[in-house]
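=== RUN LOG ===
request id: a7f3
mode: sequence -> structure
chains: 1
length: 262
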Amino acid sequence: MRGFHFLLGIFFFLLPSRGYADYPRPWQMYYQDPVTPVMEHLYAFHATLLVIEGLIVFTVAALLIFVVIRFRASKNAVPSKMAHNTLLEIIWTTIPVLILAFIAFPSFKLLYMMDVTPKSQLTIKATGNQWYWTYEYPDHNIRFDSNIVPEDQLKPGQLRLFEVDNRVIVPTHTNIRVITTSSDVVHSWAVPAFGVKRDSIPGRLNETWFHVKQEGVYYGQCSELCGVKHGFMPIVIEAISPAKFEQWLASKKSPSQPTSGG
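=== RESULT ===
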């Protein structure tokens, strides 16, 4: 009975969790809830690999147990002298090759999807600084800095170490291109729920993209060790409807409004 409970615990540990999470939660062990096509494919591919790896581990463990029991000294006082078995060697060479081929094709497709930016309707430039982000909407002449909100200034409901004074506002159901660079050292612009992580390198422009399907607020952080305050330059993306986004753009272009973030 104890063995059954142990196996049941392993099963539920390996089972993908579908709990909604747009930011890291205490004791979270799985991915955040995907809200972009890229992250959905990453999530599905990971789940597929987890099943394959689990089957491999189970099969190898079962074979080891079989060998230990079947060929123990008390059962085989005179061990076999056989050194080669052509059929067996073909089988254990062919099966891994087929498994790798099965994994390779969807992984190549996913890599292409992640690296090739489709035609976009909005471009955002993210510049890493020690230790905050500067955002620009080149097509709309909008530019602002995004700094972490100190713990003693947090409002009810805001997240410690994750909230910023100016959020990045984006429309849902829109292909958004992100161009990222750095003004000093290497940073990394990463939002787990989007499946996005791209290094921000001084003197170089790197490109990535995302397409948010669901309205909400999504949190990320710089993912490169960029200095003493590396853990204090969060990324906050607020996805709103296209109609609300047009209203936001209009408010930022109004002469009476300063050009700043959300």
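=== NOTES ===
Strands lie at 122-129, 132-137, 142-146, 168-171, 176-182, 187-191, 196-200, 206-210, 216-222, 234-240.
Residues 1-21, 256-260 have pLDDT under 50 and may be disordered.
=== END ===
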